[in-house]
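In response to the reviewer comment on reproducibility (Comment 2.3), we provide here a single inverse folding case reported in full, input and output, so that an independent group could reproduce the run without further information from us. The structure tokens appear first.
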């Protein structure tokens, strides 16, 4: 075979440039914001810039003047580069490491399901609650010891053990043994361990609350709003669930300190017309945080979905009203933070990660959280355990008798690893919100039968999109008072301090 010799003439370097402005676009995702007609640009590391439609046209055509403030902003946010300032790969790498730090941490959250027995019959409960007199639904000490072995196999710097049920307070003696053993082991290994109990608070007497205080156990309870909403959602045998919850929150706050007591609201159809009344109930109870969460499509709650359920749009209408009212209250000097909003705003406005499992990519299930069921079964997440209650145990990693390494090499984790990276999923990889969002294979198995899910019809995606649209609309408006409220939530600093600092700066 012979080759014909030819003279080769290369085009000049300018032919490969980008026109008169001589800059290149870095990998950028774009989304037209429906509420204000502007365009959101996000970089691969989560920096964002909101521009007008005309500015977006100039950017894409590479006709934006390099002397403009907008160009400088885009360059500093890793969205464009030029010959004077090429891609800042070290900065991009550092930001990526920070945002994806959870990948290297190991399981930090360890959920112990102490019992399935419960004194409530909440309509949206994800588990099938058992009677108080039921046998065979409690974790025993040997199982707890093995679970503790798995906890301390993790290389996470800070370990959190969360006690759940049923009603975890029904197994308080076992809880005490786990806390004391966990503290002793942490001291021996020079590590940090913290504890949380999820409970109605009804069954915790003053001595038990004093134990929680003395061992710095955080108390997490449920308060669904005023009595007519709470009692409808969370009935108990004596039909006084709301009254007992309010009294228990007060008692726990007096003994443990109100800063160690938090509550969340599960929003049912009964809740939707009462956003303001729900928030007012939290203010009257002296709480400073509220978490407004939708019903989960798992376990026992599926049976009540026709009665309690709603569309993603209906939930978001409720949520928008709640956020508007919370901003109004904060500006009146009444501090009350919506915790999910804080998580989203932290991911959008700061380079720092959050530990919330549903917003991690790669997915945190099984990697950063493990659930130890009362019977010794180990699951990738609480939702994975609920799915098993529904007859699908594909997210069961194994048992507490297996090492952490073996559990994380299980078939369950292969599903998580294959379908848990949002940046690789169809419908997610090109979404401008993906730097702040996560993949949730367990949710999509529960709702669509497929761990990858169809993003076009995914309720998770619909709701997350609405969340991001809402908060980017606030960010685009850039109202100083509203942004100060959001900053106070993110930093956990009093709004008055931030306002004073702003005035001093001016």
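Designed residues, in position order:
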């Amino acid at each position: 075979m012979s080759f014909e010799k030819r003279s080769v003439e290369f085009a000049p370097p300018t032919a490969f440039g980008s026109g008169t402005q001589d800059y290149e676009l870095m990998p950028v995702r774009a989304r037209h914001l429906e509420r204000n007609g502007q365009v959101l640009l996000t970089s691969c590391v989560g920096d964002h810039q909101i521009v007008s439609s005309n500015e977006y046209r100039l950017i894409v055509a590479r006709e934006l003047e390099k002397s403009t403030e907008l160009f400088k902003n885009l360059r500093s946010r890793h969205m464009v580069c030029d010959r004077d300032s090429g891609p800042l790969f070290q900065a991009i790498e550092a930001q990526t490491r920070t945002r994806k730090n959870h990948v290297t941490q190991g399981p930090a959250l360890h959920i112990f399901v102490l019992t399935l027995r419960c004194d409530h019959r909440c309509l949206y409960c994800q588990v099938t609650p058992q009677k108080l007199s039921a046998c065979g639904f409690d974790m025993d000490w040997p199982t707890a010891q093995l679970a503790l072995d798995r906890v301390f196999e993790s290389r996470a710097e800070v370990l959190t053990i969360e006690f759940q049920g049923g009603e975890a307070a029904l197994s308080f003696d076992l809880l005490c043994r786990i806390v004391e053993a966990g503290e002793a082991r942490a001291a021996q290994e020079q590590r940090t361990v913290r504890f949380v109990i999820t409970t109605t608070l009804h069954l915790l007497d003053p001595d038990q609350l004093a134990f929680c205080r003395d061992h710095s156990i955080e108390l997490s309870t449920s308060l669904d709003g005023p009595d007519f909403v709470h009692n409808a959602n969370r009935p108990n045998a004596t039909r006084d669930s709301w009254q007992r919850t309010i009294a228990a929150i007060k008692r726990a706050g007096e003994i443990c300190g109100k800063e160690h007591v938090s509550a969340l609201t599960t929003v049912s159809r009964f809740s939707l017309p009462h956003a303001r009344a729900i928030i007012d109930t939290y203010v009257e109870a002296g709480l400073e945080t509220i978490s407004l969460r939708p019903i989960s499509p798992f376990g026992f709650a599926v049976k009540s979905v026709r009665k309690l359920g709603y569309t993603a749009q209906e939930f978001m209408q409720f949520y928008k009203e709640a956020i508007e009212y919370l901003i109004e209250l904060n500006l009146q000097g009444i501090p009350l933070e919506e915790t999910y909003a804080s998580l989203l705003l932290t991911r959008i406005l700061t380079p720092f990660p959050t530990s919330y499992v549903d917003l991690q990519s790669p997915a945190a299930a099984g990697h950063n959280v493990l659930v130890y069921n009362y019977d010794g079964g180990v699951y990738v997440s609480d939702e994975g355990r609920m799915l098993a209650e529904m007859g699908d145990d594909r997210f069961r990693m194994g048992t507490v008798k297996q090492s952490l390494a073996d559990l994380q090499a299980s078939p369950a984790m292969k599903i998580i690893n294959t379908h848990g990276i949002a940046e690789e999923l169809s419908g997610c990889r090109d979404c401008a919100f993906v730097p702040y969002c996560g993949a949730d294979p367990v949710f999509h198995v529960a709702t669509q039968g497929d761990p990858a899910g169809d993003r076009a019809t995914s309720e998770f995606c619909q709701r997350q999109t609405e969340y991001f649209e809402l908060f980017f609309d606030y960010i685009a408006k850039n109202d100083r008072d509203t942004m100060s409220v959001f900053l106070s939530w993110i930093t956990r600093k009093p709004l008055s301090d931030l306002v004073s600092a702003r005035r001093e700066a001016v």
